[in-house]
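Dear Dr. H.,

I hope your travels went smoothly. While you were away I took the liberty of generating a structure for the chain from your last submission, since the lab meeting agenda had it listed for discussion. I wanted you to have the full record in hand beforehand rather than looking at slides cold. The sequence, exactly as received, is reproduced here:
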Amino acid sequence: MAVKIEQHYGFPVDVEWAKDGDTGKLYIVQARPETVASRKKAGVKEEFKLLERGTELSQGRAVGNKIGSGKVGELGLDSV
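The corresponding predicted structure, in token form, is as follows:
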């Protein structure tokens, strides 16, 4: 299915899927241009170095190897 989506748009896409917890069916939730792997320059290695650390708000697995920064808002479960 992902290949058909890419063929439809004509460029690599990042497809987000959701699985129905009751039926087990998979649904396509979103498809947008892929912006990490397809934009790498062949033969060029980029290296990034974190110069200072702020307060850690969450943890996760990185999709790419770049460093981002900016303002963050935190929502508690009672505000959703």
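Two observations you may find useful: The first strand starts at residue 13 and ends at 19. The first helix runs from residue 2 to 9.

With kind regards,
E. W.
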